[in-house]
Amino acid sequence: MTLIGGGAVGAQDLYDALALAPICVAADSGADVAVQAGIDLAAVIGDMDSIAPATRAQIPDSKFHKIPEQMSTDFDKALRNIAAPCIIGVGFSGKRVDHQLGVLHTLVMRPEAACIILGADDIIFLCPRMFTLPLEPGTRVSLFPLGAVMGRSQGLEWPIEGLEFAPWGASGTSNRATGDLHLEMDDPFMLCILPRRFLGAVTERLAGMPAPARWPARAEQYKDPPQS
């Protein structure tokens, strides 16, 4: 499924995402982007505080799913209400830094959702417990922790085993593949950043993973905000 946000959307972004995930949902003002591009939306999810009135008038009321609480972002509202093997997020980077940081935070808060953020040059996703991907030697592989996490690797020029990753400690920026990549993570806190050309391969890999390959939501740690 393609999820459209109100951030920067390049000319090729929607084409690349919809070619892999043709069902499209918008997060609030992402509907403006979809309508302007002539894309049929299956749903619009969010608090509806930023969608343009002219856009609302072009979408049937039945497709709006308003969640009025203000304790979470529209991206989070969408992720926790979409059931799909893999979600490609378009328009969630490139404009406001605070919004982009919020998106990355949500990826870690929703480890049960397989979601890839499509950027101008890169893709970003939460690394599953075990992840393999064919890569050419020299491919840039960046690992960025949003929590304390350790792991193991095969196919990286600088192996990660034994490193204590954390936002306040080690990170894995600009590592390089020596061949096929294999990663194992002990906790769901590691973001993986790869060149954009691997969007199709990563989508296929994440969509084909059985649920146990990712971390289920842990109720005691990840609680939905109160609905109002």
Summarize the SSE layout with pairings:
Blueprint: E1 2-4, H1 13-20, E2 24-27, H2 30-36, E3 43-46, H3 53-56, E4 64-66, H4 74-79, E5 87-90, H5 97-109, E6 115-118, E7 122-126, E8 130-133, E9 140-145, E10 151-156, E11 172-185, E12 190-195, H6 199-207
3D structure, described in words:
This protein has 228 residues and is of the alpha/beta class. The chain has helices at 13-20, 30-36, 53-56, 74-79, 97-109, 199-207, and strands spanning 2-4, 24-27, 43-46, 64-66, 87-90, 115-118, 122-126, 130-133, 140-145, 151-156, 172-185, 190-195. Strands 1, 2, 3, 4, 5, 6, 7, 8, 9, 10, 11 and 12 form a 12-stranded mixed sheet that branches. The protein is elongated, with a radius of gyration of 18 Å. 41% of the residues are buried. Mean pLDDT is 91; it is low at 217-223.
From the structure above, extract its key features:
228 residues, alpha/beta, single chain, 6 helices
Q: What's the number of extended β-strand segments?
A: 12
Shape label? elongated
Number of helices: 6
Oligomer state equals single chain
Strand proportion, as a percent range, falls in 25-35%
